[in-house]
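Summary of Year 1 activities. Much of the first year was spent building the evaluation harness for sequence design. The harness presents a backbone, in tokenized form, and records the residue chosen at every position. We chose the following record to illustrate the format because it has been used consistently in internal testing since the harness was completed.
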């Protein structure tokens, strides 16, 4: 919790007197009496009716906080109304104060089992009515506050979880940027790979949610380059066999940097970092996996990473025109790339993907 936030539930400003009370009795004098009493006690939101047929509609349309209900009325009577209203459960249930001249044990038991919250007997004992109305409304108010408070806490926890995930990701994005900054001074490569991977994923029928995760996870694929010395990472021209062995370590180094997280996004990023240099024919690294043994997300980034690298300049090479890059990638299909992923990639707008 932030400083200054309180741990106690929010307090209602106007207490129970602004809460809504619906009183139902087929005897007009009783209704008039209840209206007068409730007004005297300071309740400002009171509706009454002598026609029990209107009750369900009033409850639905006006959402009272308390129902004062006569039992003996022309149909529907109090029992029938309670049965009809009885679906609500727990805190959402409308409290019902039954008004009855019949105070036999049997009637009370039946009313309680049908949904009554409490009773007052006729003729009314005024203090008793006031106290029971007050108790039921106070309980209702507290329940509403607790529900509201629980929802508030839940929303706050969700927000904090998102914030935490976001800040963890930001740190890694900055680390990826630091790694990338060394060999791509425009440092847009990772962002473009993220975007292209998400577009490609959607084309392959993956869900929007999965594509959204890929959009954030794919840019971390080369984070392990922080472990590669400048002399190798920035070397113009071909690497020696030994140098290439060091370069290859960026895949496992990246997986180690990202590994062990509970976050689905970082778990995805770990898989991508480890597998984005595997090749469809099994000649890639670090594990030499082949075909569908290579995780799908790694296969996706294997392709988008190469496309972006070909179509953009690096310190040691010029950018290749998009059409030429696509021809080059055609030659790599089935050896380097998963043919199904390449086929989906062929349907995309390549100029847009290569742009920015
Ligand atoms: Fe890489």
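For this record, the design step produced the sequence shown next.
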């Amino acid at each position: 919790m932030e400083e200054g936030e309180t741990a106690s539930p929010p307090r209602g400003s106007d207490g129970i007197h602004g809460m809504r009370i619906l009183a139902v009795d087929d005897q007009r004098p009783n209704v008039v009496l209840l209206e007068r009493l409730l007004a005297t006690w300071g309740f400002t939101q009171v509706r009454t009716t002598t026609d029990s047929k209107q009750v369900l509609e009033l409850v639905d349309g006006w959402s009272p906080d308390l129902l004062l209900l006569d039992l003996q009325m022309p149909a529907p009577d109090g029992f029938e109304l309670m049965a009809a209203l009885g679906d609500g459960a727990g805190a959402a249930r409308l409290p019902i104060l039954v008004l009855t001249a019949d105070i036999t044990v049997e009637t009370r038991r039946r009313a309680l089992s049908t949904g009554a919250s409490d009773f007052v007997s006729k003729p009314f004992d005024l203090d008793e009515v006031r106290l029971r109305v007050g108790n039921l409304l106070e309980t209702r108010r507290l329940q509403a506050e607790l529900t509201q408070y629980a929802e508030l806490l839940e929303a706050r926890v969700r927000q904090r979880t998102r914030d935490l995930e976001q800040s963890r990701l930001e740190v890694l994005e900055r680390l990826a940027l630091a790694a990338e900054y060394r060999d791509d001074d425009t440092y847009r490569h990772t962002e473009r790979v993220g975007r292209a991977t998400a577009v490609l994923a959607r084309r392959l029928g993956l869900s929007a949610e999965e594509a959204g995760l890929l959009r954030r996870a794919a840019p971390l694929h080369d984070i392990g380059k922080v472990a590669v010395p400048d002399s190798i990472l920035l070397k113009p021209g071909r690497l020696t066999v030994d140098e290439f062995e060091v370069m290859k370590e960026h895949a496992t180094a990246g997986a180690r940097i990202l590994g062990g997280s509970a976050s689905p996004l970082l778990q995805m990023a770990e898989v991508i970092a480890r597998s984005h240099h595997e090749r469809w024919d099994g000649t890639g690294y670090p594990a030499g996996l082949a075909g569908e043994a290579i995780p799908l997300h790694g296969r996706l980034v294997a392709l988008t990473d190469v496309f972006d690298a070909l179509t953009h300049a690096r310190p040691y090479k010029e950018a290749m025109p998009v059409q030429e890059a696509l021809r080059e990638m055609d030659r790599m299909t089935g050896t380097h790339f998963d043919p199904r992923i390449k086929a989906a990639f062929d349907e995309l707008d390549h100029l847009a993907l290569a742009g920015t």
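Residues 1-13 have pLDDT under 50 and may be disordered. Quantitative recovery figures across the full test set are reported in Table 2.
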